[in-house]
Amino acid sequence: MSRAEKPILKTLGRAFFLPEGYYFLSNHLEKLRLPTEETTISNDAGQLWETALGELECSLSRPNFRTWYIGTTGLNYDNGRFVIGVANTFVAEYLERNQRSLIEKTLIKLTGCPNMELTFQVLGNPRGARSSGKASAVTRTATRCFNPRYDFDSFIVGNSNRLAHAAALSAAQQPGRSYNPLFIHGQSGLGKTHLLQAIGQVASNEGRNVRYVSGEQFTSEFVSALKERRADEFRELYRGVDLLLIDDIQFIAGKAQTEESFFHTFNELHNSGKQIVLSADSPPRAISQLEDRLRSRFEWGLTTEIASPDEKTRLAILKARAEEAGEEITPDVLDYLASEVIRNIRELEGNLNRVLAYSRLLRSAVTPDLARRALKNIAGEPEAAQTDTPAHLLDTVAECYEINTEALVGRRRDKETANARQVAMYVLKSQNIWSLSEIGRMVGDRSAATVSHACDKITRELEFNPLLKRKINDIEGRIRRE
Ligand SMILES: Nc1ncnc2c1ncn2[C@@H]1O[C@H](COP(=O)(O)OP(=O)(O)OP(=O)(O)O)[C@@H](O)[C@H]1O
């Protein structure tokens, strides 16, 4: 790797060079074609493993990836032998038993080496090497390390997450005394894990016994404990904590025995005034297959939602991330990125990382134009989409709503036309070519704020309105075909 390329790794954390001219940002699971840059694959075990993690992240469910892979490191790579550092023998055993072949295939693909021999080394145990497979799964399970980046200081508060943040802070500062349980729900990538880990870090810094696990990890620990006849140990482990944080609790729904075990754990902790914090992708009443007795308990304390961030919050997050990365980004670029239609904060951070990567690789300053090109390029959209004119896009939307284009960009305010107009703004925005102000001008001289509001509204509505989803798919299909 050349000296000029090194800062990218430092800045982006998980941005790596892959063969075939692809630049990969594991946060976003997308590929950026950079035709002019020479790319190399590093022999360094740490970098190689990070690249492999990016690939693995694509092929596994989020809870699965988070439970078993976060915290692992590439320790050594030599002649087809790869040593992976893991937090404890429980993780080593799980990876060895269930993921070995996938990991091997991934590493073989990345290195081009025909064979790969894996060793899992438990970190902190010098004799570590491979797991024995005999000792107790429960006693070996350590509390998951917290990501130091996920603390309250780095969490940006806005309208979408104010209540969740305040409740989380209160649970961290006065565990068991305010909202118990605290149930935080929201779509993927909106900060649930961040808040849970922030709570865990505060409480554990104060010397409390904290346990943070995902719903998936809770389930597999429980199943292993049963198999190994260590149910008592499992019970003790979970019921002896001051603060229990379970991420993605929806994972236990429909697993009768795990639900039963969690029911008793919950009751015991709650009765003894211990704090419980849960996160899920939906509110308790919307988690399908969850036992009623758990559902009602989850609603005993405070149920709070994290919603999609508004533009102001998006801007604040971008500023913070740019600062963290040591990058000076001009306000017009930040405004442009904040105005982008995104599904979640992970995607927002992803966009920023893409722009930074693009600018470094092309050695060009970060301007709104470069940002636009970077996002367009990385999205890998077909050339045809780039030639779409605003007029063509507006015509297509108007056609789908069976109104004429003049009405679409005119002053009519009936519900149908207003809705079609908002969809038009959303469709224009999702082309990633024009700024909010430019789009505002295209749809009858409307303000950037109106466009932003429309895009946010449609993004939110798409989450629960299948008719709208179908309509937009139809419009996008027509645009592609034409
Ligand atoms: N309010 C915020 N301020 C700063 N960063 C945030 C905020 N909300 C989320 N993030 C960042 O967004 C990314 C995704 O957040 P996180 O992993 O907590 O989402 P999640 O809701 O747990 O998603 P999932 O359900 O997919 O696991 C993280 O990098 C996190 O730090």
UniProtKB/TrEMBL annotation:
Q: What is its main location?
A: cytoplasm
Sequence ranges assigned to domain AAA+ ATPase in this UniProt record: 178-304
Q: Which Pfam families match?
A: Bac_DnaA, Bac_DnaA_C
Annotated segments matching region Domain IV, binds dsDNA:
360-482
Q: Where are the annotated segments for Domain I, interacts with DnaA modulators? A: 1-126
Alphabetical list of SMART domains matching this protein: AAA, Bac_DnaA_C
The UniProt entry, under CDD domains, shows: AAA, Bac_DnaA_C
Compartments it resides in = Cytoplasm
Q: Where do the Chromosomal replication initiator DnaA C-terminal domain residues begin and end?
A: 389-458
Q: Give the UniProt keywords, A-Z.
A: ATP-binding, Cytoplasm, DNA replication, DNA-binding, Lipid-binding, Nucleotide-binding
**InterPro entries with a match to the protein in the record:** AAA+_ATPase, Chromosome_initiator_DnaA, Chromosome_initiator_DnaA-like, DnaA_C, DnaA_dom, DnaA_N_sf, P-loop_NTPase, Trp_repressor/repl_initiator
* Residues engaged in binding ATP: G189, G191, K192, T193
Keyword match ATP-binding: yes
Stated role: Plays an essential role in the initiation and regulation of chromosomal replication. ATP-DnaA binds to the origin of replication (oriC) to initiate formation of the DNA replication initiation complex once per cell cycle. Binds the DnaA box (a 9 base pair repeat at the origin) and separates the double-stranded (ds)DNA. Forms a right-handed helical filament on oriC DNA; dsDNA binds to the exterior of the filament while single-stranded (ss)DNA is stabiized in the filament's interior.
**UniProt similarity note:** Belongs to the DnaA family.
Subunit: Oligomerizes as a right-handed, spiral filament on DNA at oriC.
What's noted about domains in the record? Answer: Domain I is involved in oligomerization and binding regulators, domain II is flexibile and of varying length in different bacteria, domain III forms the AAA+ region, while domain IV binds dsDNA.
Question: What's this protein's name?
Answer: Chromosomal replication initiator protein DnaA
Species per Swiss-Prot/TrEMBL record: Candidatus Dehalogenimonas loeffleri
